[in-house]
Each structure stands twice: as structure tokens, then as C-alpha cells.
Amino acid sequence: MPRYGQLVIGPAGSGKSSYCTTIVHHCEVIKRTIHVINLDPAAEKFDYPVAADIRDLIQLEDAMEDESLQYGPNGGLIFCMEYFAKNLDWLEEQLGEHEDDYYLFDCPGQIELYSHIPVMKELVTKLANMNFRMCSVFLIDSQFMVEPLKYVSGVMAALSAMVILETTHVNLITKIDLLDKHSRREMERLLDSDLKTLVQEKSNDKFNEKYSKLSCGIADIVSRKNIVTY
């Protein structure tokens, strides 16, 4: 029988931990077995039990403290995930052979992992070979999305993850309850607008004028194909 997995992706402050806690609680209520797998080497603590933890394989602090590497936080995280990709057999051992169970993979949110570094795609391929049925959930903080250009940036980040991972995909805007009335109205406007219109709003800015044609072209494709929704 297949196993079912959910990749939970979200940058710092996206509410990823709260989301995982909610899913774990939901599975407990409906009496469904769930295993949480931490794949974030920079994680600090959890409000739920963790079945496997990448920090048992490698930790961000170790990469940053290694004098021969001299990495900062971003470079250190990339190093950790590339090391993880070379040791995916470790993950297979940790997952065991449970069938018909649900797995929650708590993933790091650094955008490089979902743009031009193949680590997460290699993970998805490995899990598919292990008979997993995968879904990706991309979380982004609503407070980051209430300005047109930031909203466009968030859409492109979600699109990048969708293209890299090639799984069933859900995009979630989190922390709506923390927005004031004005920000909520702006968020509603942005969600009801097409991407090309938002880009054109800023195309007269000096910084964006040079790239407005390219930006409008990309936005037009994303809007017409209705690729990214929340």
C-alpha cells in the first residue's frame, strides 16, 4: 500500500510551526497515524513529537562553526541540505516500512532550495521511489503580501517551488488575523487582481522601467494560465 506525505514549506515567520501543530492535532482527533519528519537543520524546538530529525545527521551550527567551511547562515543551510541529499539512505532508514500512514515533512524555507538547487527535487524523487504519494504546501505570511511588488514576489516564489517539485501543490496565505482592516482590504484587492495589472501599476518606477516588458510578459503567462492561486 502507498504512504502519504506532505512537504510543508515556509520561510521564517510564515507560521509553519503552527500549521504543523494543527495538522498533527487534526490527525490525532480523526485517529490517523502521522509521523512528523524534521528536515530543517536550523530548527530549534517543536510543539509536537518528531519521528525523525535531520539534526541527528547534520546541524546548521556545525556547518557554521567549521573553520574550514566558514559559512554564514544561508551558505551553511545550503551545505547541510546538499549533505542530506548525498545521504538520503539515512532518511529511508528513519522512515521505516509503515504502510498507509501519513508523513509530514517539515522543510526549510530558503528560496534557493526551490529555485536553482536540485536538493528538494531529489528528495521528492526518492520518496516517489519509496511509494509515497506527495503533496506540497507552500506557506507565506500575509504581512509580506499586502504590497503589490511583494505580492508579485510571493507569487513567483510559490511558482518556483511548484515548478521544481512537480507535486500536487497548495499555496496558503497565513496570519490573516494579524492584519488591520486597511491591510485586509488591500489583500482582497490583490487576490482579485491579475498579476499583469499589479506589475503595470509599478512599471513607471525608475527601477522597474527597464524590465517592465519582461515583467509584464511573465505576469501575463502566470495570470492567463491561472497557475498560482491561494
TrEMBL record:
The keyword Nucleotide-binding applies. It comes from the Eukaryota. GO terms for molecular function: GTP binding; GTPase activity. It holds the Pfam family ATP_bind_1. Keywords: GTP-binding, Hydrolase, Nucleotide-binding. InterPro entries: Gpn (IPR004130), Gpn3 (IPR030228), P-loop_NTPase (IPR027417). Small GTPase required for proper localization of RNA polymerase II (RNAPII). May act at an RNAP assembly step prior to nuclear import. Small GTPase required for proper nuclear import of RNA polymerase II and III (RNAPII and RNAPIII). May act at an RNAP assembly step prior to nuclear import. Binds to RNA polymerase II (RNAPII). Belongs to the GPN-loop GTPase family. This is GPN-loop GTPase 3. It comes from Dimorphilus gyrociliatus.
